[in-house]
Design a protein that fits this description.
By secondary structure, this protein is of the alpha/beta class. 37% of the residues lie in helices and 22% in strands. InterPro entries: AMP-binding_CS (IPR020845), AMP-dep_synth/lig_dom (IPR000873), ANL_N_sf (IPR042099).
Length: 696
C-alpha cells in the first residue's frame, strides 16, 4: 500500500515544484530601446542582440568552411538512390508517379567542401561574373545547397524562387533582378523555356539533372542560352580551380522572393550578417544541438526557415538527409508500395515542420485509433489522457518515467511514422493549433518549438523554449531580436491595455534585413532606423505580451491573411471579385488560420434572390426564411463560384461555405462606416457564432 502512496505523493510534489518554477521564470524582460515609443522585450538571457556565435566568423561562407574543416570525415549531405520511377493508373483513369527509393548515399563534409569549391570555380569558368546574380529555381535537394554555398564562395548574390511559383511571378522575379544564370531542375527548366522570350538577361542555365529537356535545344542552337548539367559545371571547375572571393558580412547573400500575398512578389534582400544573426540565435535555443543530430530536409530552401535551419545543422556538424513532402512517410503519395519513406530510412532526430504536415500526421493517427476497438482503443485513450494531464500539470511529469512507459506501450508505433528518434520539432510558417501541438507532443513524445518571424527578419523574432509547455504562444524574443509593441489606436490595441500590453509587433536587431529590392517606397514604409542606429521592421501583425515575456499573435492590421497550408488571401481583393454577383448586397470573407478553407458572410440582395425563388417556384414565409433554405444557399454559392472564376481567383480563395443574411449592414448597426466600408472586427464579433458553425 505504501508503494502506491509514494507513487501518488512524489508526482504531486514534483508538480508543485515545477509549477512554482514556471511561475517564476522570466523568458523575456522589458528593455529600454530607441525609436517609436512602445513596450519592448528582450530575451532574458541576453542584454544585447546576438550577431554571431563564432569568433572570427561573419559570413555564411566562412561558417560553412569552418564546419567542413572541423568535421571533414563525417557525413554531411545525403540523397536517396532512385531505383525506379513508375507510373500507376487509378480506377478512374488518373495517372500517378511512384518512386522506388533506396538507401541514402552520402557526401562527407570534406567531399562536400570540394564539390562546392569546384562548382564555384566552374561557375566562374562558364563566364558568370561576381557582380551578376544567380537564381536557384528548384525543389529542395542536395544540389540546391551546394549551389548556394558555391555562389557564396564567389560572393555572388543568390535569388531564391519557389519551384511552384506561377509564370507571371517567375518572370517578374528574374527580370527585376536581371539574373544572368539560372540553376534549376529539368522540371523547372521546361517552365523557363516557355517564358524564354521574356528573359533578356538570362545567358546560362545549369540543370541539376543530367537528362536535360529536349525543348531547350532550339535556344542552345540559336545561341540564346548555354545549357550545362550541374555535374559538368563541377567537372569544369575541378579542372580549372579558381581562388575563392569571399563576401563581407554586409554583402547581400540572398534576394528572397516571397510567395506573394497580393500581386507580384517582393524580393527581400538579406545580408550574410542578417542570416548569421538568426542562425547564431537559434543555436542557443534548440537543446543540446550538436554533431549527433540528423536533420530531415524537405521544406522549400527558397523559404528562409529551411535555409536558416540547414545552415544551423551544418554549423554544429550535424547530418542533413534530403527528402520531399510526398515521400516523407511510408504512405506518401509518391512512395511505391513496399518502399520505405524518407523518415523511416533516415530516422532523424530533429525536423522543421509546417502545421499542415503536423495536422496530417495527427489526422492519420486519429483515423487509425478510431478504427480500433476494445482494449487497444481504451488503452490509447487512457495513455493520451494521462500524458495530457502530465503535460498540463508539470514539466517533470511531462518527461518522466511514466512517459517512457506510455511511449513503449502505446505511442512507439506513432513515433515510428517519423523514424522513431525525433527529439525536437520546430514549427513555423503558419499558426499551429493548440490541439495539434498537444497531440504531437504526446504521440511523438517530443517538444515542439513554435517560432514567429518573417522573411524580412530572416525568420528570426521569437521562439518558444523547450521547457515551455503552453500552447497558442510563439515564445520570447530570440537572442538576436528586440520585439516591441506599439499602439494601434484604430484597431483598439494599446500597450497600456490590461491585463497585458497589446499592439503592432515591431522587430529590431541585426537580423532585420535592408529592405526590398528595387522598391524604395515600400522599404521606407515598413523599415525604420532609430536614433541609436537600430533597424526596425513594422510587421503589421498584432501581438500581446504575457507576463513571462512570451508573445501571442492575436490579429493583423491589414486584411491579408494566411490559410493553414500557408496560402495568402487578400480579403479585400476577393470581396471585390465576389460582390459582382447579382445576389450579393454585401459580403465579408473570413479566414481562420487553423483551417484550409475560407468562409463568407453574405448579405443577400432581396429583389434578386426573391425573383430567382419565384422563377423556381420556391415558397417561403419571409425573406429570412428564404435565406435559410438549402436551395437558396446552393444558388448563391454557385453564383459566387462563377464570379470567382471570372475574376481568375485561386481555388483556395473561393469561400467553401457561406452564411446568407437577410438584414442589410448599415452605419446605424455599427457594421459599416459612413462611407459603407465594412467594419471587419465588428462583423466578426457580431456573427462569431455563425462563423464558428461554418467551420464545424
Amino acid at each position: 500500500m505504501s508503494v502506491y502512496i509514494v507513487g501518488a505523493v512524489v508526482p504531486l510534489v514534483l508538480t508543485l515544484l515545477a509549477q512554482s518554477s514556471k511561475k517564476m521564470k522570466k523568458r523575456g524582460v522589458p528593455v529600454d530601446v530607441g525609436g517609436e515609443p512602445g513596450y519592448a522585450i528582450r530575451n532574458s538571457q541576453f542584454t544585447s542582440p546576438v550577431e554571431t556565435a563564432w569568433e572570427g566568423i561573419s559570413t555564411l561562407a566562412e561558417l560553412f568552411e569552418q564546419a567542413c574543416k572541423q568535421h571533414r570525415d563525417k557525413y554531411l549531405l545525403g540523397t536517396r538512390k532512385l531505383i525506379s520511377r513508375d507510373v500507376e493508373t487509378s480506377g478512374d483513369g488518373r495517372s500517378f508517379e511512384k518512386l522506388h527509393l533506396g538507401e541514402y548515399e552520402w557526401l562527407t563534409y570534406g567531399k562536400a567542401f570540394e564539390v562546392v569549391c569546384s562548382f564555384a570555380s566552374g561557375l566562374a569558368e562558364l563566364g558568370h561574373k561576381k557582380e551578376e546574380r544567380v537564381a536557384i529555381f528548384a525543389d529542395t535537394r542536395e544540389e540546391w545547397f551546394i549551389a548556394l554555398q558555391g555562389c557564396f564562395r564567389r560572393n555572388v548574390t543568390v535569388v531564391t524562387i519557389y519551384a511552384s511559383l506561377g509564370e507571371e511571378a517567375l518572370c517578374h522575379s528574374l527580370i527585376e533582378t536581371e539574373v544572368t544564370t539560372v540553376i534549376c531542375g529539368n522540371k523547372e527548366l521546361k517552365k523557363l523555356v516557355d517564358i524564354s522570350g521574356q528573359l533578356d538577361t538570362v545567358k546560362r542555365v545549369i540543370c541539376m539533372d543530367d537528362d536535360i529537356p529536349s525543348n531547350t535545344l532550339p535556344l542552345v542552337r540559336s545561341g540564346i542560352w548555354t545549357v550545362t548539367s550541374f555535374a559538368d559545371v563541377e567537372r569544369l571547375g575541378r579542372g580549372n580551380p579558381i581562388d575563392a572571393d569571399l563576401p563581407h558580412s554586409s554583402d547581400v547573400a540572398v534576394i528572397m522572393y516571397t510567395s506573394g500575398s497580393t500581386g507580384l512578389p517582393k524580393g527581400v534582400m538579406m545580408t550574410h550578417h542578417n542570416v548569421l544573426a538568426t542562425v547564431s540565435a537559434v543555436m542557443t535555443i534548440v537543446p543540446d544541438l550538436g554533431s549527433k543530430d540528423i536533420y530531415l530536409a524537405y521544406l522549400p530552401l527558397a523559404h528562409i526557415l529551411e535555409l536558416a535551419a540547414e545552415n544551423i545543422v551544418v554549423a554544429v556538424g550535424g547530418v542533413i538527409g534530403y527528402g520531399s513532402p510526398l515521400t516523407l512517410t511510408d504512405t506518401g503519395s509518391k512512395i511505391k508500395k513496399g518502399t520505405k519513406g524518407d523518415a523511416t530510412v533516415l530516422r532523424p532526430t530533429i525536423m522543421t515542420a509546417v502545421p499542415a504536415i503536423l495536422d496530417r500526421v495527427r489526422d492519420g493517427v486519429r483515423k487509425k485509433v478510431d478504427a480500433k476497438r476494445g482494449l487497444a482503443k481504451r488503452l490509447f485513450d487512457l495513455a493520451y489522457a494521462r500524458r495530457l494531464s502530465a503535460i498540463n500539470g508539470s514539466w517533470f511529469g511531462a518527461w518522466g518515467l511514466e512517459k517512457l512507459l506510455w511511449d513503449f506501450l502505446v505511442f512507439r508505433n506513432v513515433q515510428a511514422v517519423l523514424g522513431g528518434r525525433i527529439r525536437f520539432l520546430l514549427s513555423g510558417g503558419a499558426p499551429l493549433s493548440a490541439d495539434t501541438q498537444r497531440f504531437i507532443n504526446i504521440c511523438l513524445g517530443a517538444p515542439i518549438g513554435q517560432g514567429y518571424g518573417l522573411t524580412e527578419t530572416c525568420a528570426g523574432a521569437t521562439f518558444s523554449e523547450v521547457d515551455d509547455t503552453s500552447v497558442g504562444r510563439v515564445g520570447s524574443p530570440l537572442p538576436c531580436s528586440f520585439v516591441k509593441l506599439i499602439d494601434w489606436p484604430e484597431g483598439g490595441y494599446r500597450t497600456s491595455d490590461s491585463p497585458m500590453p497589446r499592439g503592432e509587433i515591431v522587430i529590431g536587431g541585426p537580423n532585420v534585413t535592408p529592405g526590398y529590392f528595387k522598391n524604395e517606397e515600400k522599404t521606407k514604409e515598413v523599415y525604420k532606423v532609430d536614433e541609436r542606429g537600430m533597424r526596425w521592421f513594422y510587421t503589421g501583425d498584432i501581438g500581446m505580451f504575457h507576463s513571462d515575456g512570451c508573445l501571442e499573435i492575436i490579429d493583423r492590421k491589414k486584411d491579408i491573411v494566411k490559410l493553414q497550408h500557408g496560402e495568402y488571401i487578400s480579403l479585400g481583393k476577393v470581396e471585390v471579385a465576389l460582390i459582382v454577383s447579382p445576389y450579393v448586397d454585401n459580403i465579408m470573407l473570413h479566414v481562420d488560420p487553423f483551417h484550409s478553407f475560407s468562409v463568407a458572410l453574405v448579405v443577400a440582395c432581396q429583389p434578386a434572390v426573391e425573383e430567382w425563388a419565384s422563377k423556381q417556384g420556391i415558397s417561403f414565409t419571409d425573406f429570412a426564411d428564404l435565406c435559410q433554405k438549402t436551395e437558396t444557399l446552393a444558388e448563391v454559392h454557385a453564383s459566387l463560384v462563377q464570379a470567382a472564376k471570372k475574376a481568375r481567383l485561386e481555388k483556395f480563395e473561393i469561400p467553401a461555405k457561406i452564411k446568407l443574411l437577410s438584414t442589410p449592414w448599415t452605419p446605424e448597426s455599427g457594421l459599416v462606416t459612413a462611407s459603407l466600408k465594412i467594419k471587419r472586427e465588428a462583423i466578426r464579433k457580431a456573427f462569431s457564432d455563425d462563423l464558428t458553425k461554418l467551420y464545424a
